[in-house]
């Protein structure tokens, strides 16, 4: 299927590895020019090299910096004159007990996982509407649908973003101008972050890490972790010309782990 987005420009956040990188790869494969951001310059530059090799016909611009800061956002947005596609993504805040989180911990979580996406949407959505095409995808978490006890910071911040998106995605002048805003809610995907978290959890419980990973997989109806590539493919489709009637939605991609009829 031709997604009809070749030649477009995308800003992909936290794109040096994991799900952000997978989204950038899928878009580049479709002929989309990308500006990629992440804090680690060396890993980001290597990702940029790989993306250029994947499709030499597109432009790939790497902007190292912290997208949760005003300076980081300004640098990323200045890398190209306009963006047709925005992929909001950020690593989740650490797990823990809510009794231990002070105001600074909450503000940091909100900055990264709610306020930064909103600021980037503010900076790009009107231009998209004026040009008559825009795709905004927020990578959130399945924990928005089925909260995880130890991830209260993430549950709260990402749920706040979800509520905000539900309102603005349907505004006149956005949806009516072929600008869609949707959220992807990933479950357990085979990324470095997932493995690190599960290995740490196994160690804390005094269990063998590989056995713990196997037990975790068996709890998922699909009996496996998702691959970043299949996540990237869904992201690219949501950004395509074929998804113009899809907006304000939360797309759960978790192998059936969240047991819900809604």
UniProtKB/TrEMBL annotation:
<dbReference type="Pfam" id="PF13561">
    <property type="entry name" value="adh_short_C2"/>
</dbReference>
<dbReference type="InterPro" id="IPR036291">
    <property type="entry name" value="NAD(P)-bd_dom_sf"/>
</dbReference>
<comment type="similarity">
    <text>Belongs to the short-chain dehydrogenases/reductases (SDR) family.</text>
</comment>
<dbReference type="InterPro" id="IPR050259">
    <property type="entry name" value="SDR"/>
</dbReference>
<protein>
    <submittedName>
        <fullName>SDR family oxidoreductase</fullName>
    </submittedName>
</protein>
<dbReference type="InterPro" id="IPR002347">
    <property type="entry name" value="SDR_fam"/>
</dbReference>
